[in-house]
Amino acid sequence: MAGSAIEVTGNTVNDVLKHHYVEEKPNPRNLVLLSLHRRANQGARLHQLLEQVAQITKAYPNLKFTWLMHPTPKVRAAVSKYTDCLQLLPNLPYPEVVKLYSQCRLVITDSGGIMEETAFLGIPRIIIRTHNERIGLLQAKDTFVYHPRHGNLSRIFDQALRTEGAKSKVYGEGDASIKIVDALIGRNVLQVPDRVASKETVKLVS
């Protein structure tokens, strides 16, 4: 495919995120949000990670450590043993997750979607993955990659906690839907009578 046939629009998920996100003020941003579910991080590796997180919670009593539960039974069973140091939340509707983002100081995750969303919002993130297809995030100063074999999550946690987040546009600016509709109209794939401004165009076809 010729390069001229490709339109770079960004991820439409960021459009939804931008729609729901509200910056709360005053906002202490004292929440550390955790979410893990990948098979590579289950079993002994998850247990090791949870033990390290438990130690970190003792060192930072001023922070609220909240685990966003995944439906995976093995993950739920393992995490449920740490209710003394973690607040466990069920799998929430998306708008409720976005509300959590507004309080986040830091995120620890292996979720690709959460990686993109926190980058868009400028929330520092610790990525628990050995392989990551989202290479656009790996060089960001507020992205930290951790593998259990490193053995010292607390060191990376402390570094991430002292890092100021930077909003990233690598996955779009929250206007991908508008760009997609405009591209379709421009290529005569989508017909809209009396074309109007982009935002109005989206309303016509949505």
What would your notes on this structure say?
The longest helix has 16 residues. This protein is 40% helix and 12% strand. The protein is built from 9 helices and 6 strands, in the order H-E-H-E-H-E-H-E-H-E-H-E-H-H-H. Helix 8 packs across helix 9. It has 206 residues and is of the alpha/beta class. The model has no long low-confidence stretch (mean pLDDT 86). The protein is elongated and about 60 Å long. It has a 6-stranded parallel beta sheet with strand order 3-2-1-4-5-6, sandwiched between helices.
Radius of gyration: 20 Å
Strand residues, percent: 5-15%
* Averaged pLDDT: 86
Strand order of the largest sheet: 3-2-1-4-5-6
Distance between the termini: 28 Å
* Spatial shape: elongated
Given the helix and strand composition, which structural class is it? Answer: alpha/beta
Largest sheet: 6 strands, parallel
Secondary structure layout plus pairing:
Blueprint: H1 12-20, E1 31-35, H2 44-59, E2 64-68, H3 73-79, E3 87-89, H4 94-101, E4 104-109, H5 112-121, E5 125-127, H6 135-138, E6 143-145, H7 153-161, H8 176-186, H9 198-205
Parallel strand pairs: 1-2, 1-4, 2-3, 4-5, 5-6
Characterize this entry briefly.
It is built from nine helices and six strands. The chain has 206 residues and is an alpha/beta fold. The two termini are 28 Å apart.
Attribute tags:
206 residues; alpha/beta; elongated; 9 helices; 12% strand; six-stranded parallel beta sheet
